[in-house]
TrEMBL record:
It comes from Sulfuriferula plumbiphila. Keywords: RNA-binding, Transcription, Transcription antitermination, Transcription regulation. Belongs to the NusB family. It holds the Pfam family NusB. GO terms for molecular function: RNA binding. The gene is nusB. It comes from the Bacteria. Gene3D superfamilies: NusB-like. PANTHER family: ANTITERMINATION NUSB DOMAIN-CONTAINING PROTEIN, N UTILIZATION SUBSTANCE PROTEIN B-RELATED. Residues 6-130 form the NusB/RsmB/TIM44 domain. This is Transcription antitermination protein NusB.
Length: 145
C-alpha cells in the first residue's frame, strides 16, 4: 500500500502545482490526472483528501509555513510551494501518518519534481514545522527495534 500512497502524493503534488499556476477547479484537475494510466494504482482517497485539503486551506497553510521560510510563499518555486503545502496539510490533518514519514515523502517528492537542492530546503522547513505542530511526537523517545 505504501507505493499506492506515494503515488497518491505524487499525483497530489501535480494537482496542487497545476492549481497554483492557474487556479483551475479541482474537479478539472482530477479529471485530467485520472487519464494517466498509473492513476488506477494510487490510493485515491488519500490523493483526493490531500489535493482538496490543500486547495481548501491554502491561505492558512501558507500562514503556517511563513515562519519557516526565507521568503514569501508566493516567491517559492511552484514545485517547492506545492510540496510544502502538501506536507503541511499532511502534518496537520493526517495524524495517522508519522511525522517522519511525512517529511521523508516531502523530501522524496522534492527529489523527483524539484530543483537540484530543493529537497534540502523542503527538509529544513518540514523539520521545523513538524517540531511545532507535532511536538509530542517529535519529542517522544525513539523506540529501539
Amino acid at each position: 500500500m505504501s507505493g499506492n500512497r506515494r503515488k497518491a502524493r505524487e499525483f497530489a503534488v501535480q494537482g496542487v502545482y497545476q492549481w497554483l499556476l492557474n487556479h483551475q477547479p479541482t474537479a478539472d484537475i482530477v479529471k485530467q490526472l485520472r487519464d494517466d494510466p498509473v492513476y488506477r494504482n494510487i490510493d485515491e482517497k488519500m490523493f483526493l483528501a490531500l489535493l482538496n485539503g490543500v486547495v481548501d486551506e491554502a491561505p492558512a497553510l501558507d500562514l503556517r509555513l511563513a515562519a519557516y521560510l526565507d521568503r514569501k510563499p508566493a516567491e517559492l518555486s511552484p514545485v517547492e510551494h506545492a510540496i510544502l503545502l502538501l506536507g503541511t496539510q499532511e502534518l496537520l490533518h493526517h495524524l495517522e501518518v508519522p511525522y517522519r514519514v511525512v517529511i521523508n515523502e516531502a523530501v522524496e517528492l522534492a527529489k523527483i519534481f524539484g530543483g537540484t537542492d530543493g529537497h534540502k530546503y523542503v527538509n529544513g522547513v518540514m523539520d521545523k514545522l513538524a517540531a511545532e505542530v507535532r511536538t509530542v511526537e517529535v519529542n517522544a523517545p525513539r523506540r529501539q527495534g
